[in-house]
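Please fill in the sequence for the structure shown.

STRUCTURE ENCODING:
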């Protein structure tokens, strides 16, 4: 970060209102004065300033020298090279479109129940359960469905037990800012927190640490990313699935995206909606996002490839490698080489390139696709 005092005023102008803001809520969580709110209704997923003194675009604490929000934002100024340098000791090369990796393998939970409840191989849930049981973490920030699940509104929450982890398993394709559950985890006494988050969110813990955003960063002990090309507006349920196909969200059981939007209904019916039809409901915050492969997580996970019930697993840091090796050794997960499905790795690179093309000209050049 440059020596000048960069605060909400700069964040508001350069990220919140420029199209770069993903809604990850890093700034909200990091604010030591609690003057940032977060709107997650009406398909707006954005931070806003709560104090009226200087209006919505400036902050009195920022004027007095507070810089926490810009330090915690994984889209502010040179975020990508700064985090790469901090996590890996170097920026990524032009060829590393999916970010810097150590190993790419396929994994699945050994426990049948975890595997069955997981979206793909149940790896994410298996890691959280294992990390809780082995003292790596004491809480995880995950995503639940509100109420009895019939509204399909994804909400951030804290998991402290195996049961809670399994309750949160599976994927919802609308946005859910899991970092927002940080305060609840701290109130519950958490000291070592795992974040499960979309690619944009998994850059939050390392950017906070790299830029010394304050004590929030110190409590993040594990960072698991979900590969992501976009999330959809909540309105897609009524405006497309129900209006065109007569599929009511309260009757839906599970969904997945494998080339098409797959929907399983509670009565056993199965439907496919072409992805082309869904694109009009792409969430605003995803339209300029360059990160498909959760490039700054300890372990990034995805569901692409020919093996539907395995998780494509990208190990990025020493911590990520330590956990995956120990879990393979004690039989908590089953692994196979990434080479078993070269098409999955090829597709990950192709989708990473596609996301990088979205990064706008007005921002720093590094996240853009530079052909090797
Ligand atoms: C919105 C979204 C888009 C995705 N897009 C792709 C893609 O394009 N290509 C690809 O290969 N993989 C994608 N994934 C990742 C994939 O769906 C699986 O999450 C991943 O493979 C891990 O599977 P698993 O069985 O190991 O995880 P599980 O054990 O099922 O755990 C999944 C974890 O994700 C959390 N979660 C679920 N929904 C959300 C949400 N909306 N926001 C934040 N956290 C959530 C859950 O709380 C749970 O902890 C996407 C996931 C999501 C949520
Ligand atoms: S990208 Fe995240 S940290 Fe940056 S302004 Fe938006 S919500 Fe805040
Ligand atoms: S595409 Fe995925 S990672 Fe990027 S902003 Fe949207 S939700 Fe976040």
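FILLED IN BY: designer on duty
SEQUENCE:
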């Amino acid at each position: 970060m440059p020596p000048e005092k960069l605060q909400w005023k700069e964040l508001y102008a350069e990220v919140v209102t420029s199209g770069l803001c993903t809604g990850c809520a890093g700034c909200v969580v990091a604010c030591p004065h609690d003057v940032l709110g977060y709107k997650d209704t009406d398909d707006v997923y954005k931070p806003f300033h709560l104090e009226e003194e200087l209006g919505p675009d400036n902050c009195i604490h920022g004027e007095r020298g507070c810089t926490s929000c810009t330090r915690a934002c994984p889209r502010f100024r040179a975020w990508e090279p700064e985090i790469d340098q901090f996590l890996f000791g170097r920026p990524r090369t032009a060829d590393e479109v999916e970010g810097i990796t150590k190993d790419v393998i396929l994994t699945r939970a050994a426990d049948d129940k975890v595997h069955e409840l997981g979206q793909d191989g149940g790896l994410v849930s298996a890691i959280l359960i294992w990390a809780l049981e082995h003292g790596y973490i004491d809480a995880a920030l995950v995503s639940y469905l509100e109420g009895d699940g019939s509204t399909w509104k994804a909400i951030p929450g804290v998991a402290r037990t195996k049961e809670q982890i399994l309750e949160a398993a599976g994927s919802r394709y609308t946005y859910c800012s899991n970092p927002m559950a940080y305060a609840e985890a701290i109130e519950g006494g958490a000291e070592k927190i795992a974040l499960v988050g979309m690619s944009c969110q998994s850059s939050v813990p390392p950017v906070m640490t790299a830029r010394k955003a304050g004590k929030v960063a110190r409590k993040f002990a594990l960072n698991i990313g979900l590969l992501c090309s976009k999330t959809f507006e909540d309105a897609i349920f009524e405006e497309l699935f129900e209006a065109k196909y007569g599929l009511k969200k309260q009757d839906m059981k599970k969904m997945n995206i494998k080339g098409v939007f797959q929907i399983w209904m509670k009565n056993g019916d199965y439907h496919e909606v072409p992805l082309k039809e869904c694109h009009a409901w792409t969430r605003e915050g995803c339209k300029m996002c360059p990160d498909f492969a959760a490039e700054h997580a300890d372990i990034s996970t995805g569901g692409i490839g020919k093996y539907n019930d395995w998780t494509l697993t990208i190990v990025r840091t020493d911590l990520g490698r330590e956990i995956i090796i120990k879990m393979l050794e004690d039989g908590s997960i089953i692994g196979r080489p990434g080479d078993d499905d070269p098409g999955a790795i090829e597709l990950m690179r192709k989708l990473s390139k596609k996301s990088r093309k979205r990064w706008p000209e007005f921002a720093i050049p590094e996240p853009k696709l530079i052909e090797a």
